[in-house]
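FAQ: What does the model actually see?

It sees only this:
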Amino acid sequence: MQKDTISIVERKIHDVHFIAVERNKILINKYGKLPSYCLWDSDSVSEETPEERLEWFKEFEEIIRYFSPFSQRIIGESANNP
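And it is asked to produce this:
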């Protein structure tokens, strides 16, 4: 996972709303429209440890690189210049 992505996720690791929203963006980009029961909410994220939250993003490393809106905000300009 790129260092910038880890830095932002680590900084916001306790912001369960942020984590839930970003996870949902990844899932929707990967799988398309999903039923609401498949999406993350703040309560579910809050049940995880910070380490588990970070690990979730690491598991989607390959996918995150190709998401333009997510990449631009989280990874930055380097996402378009491998």
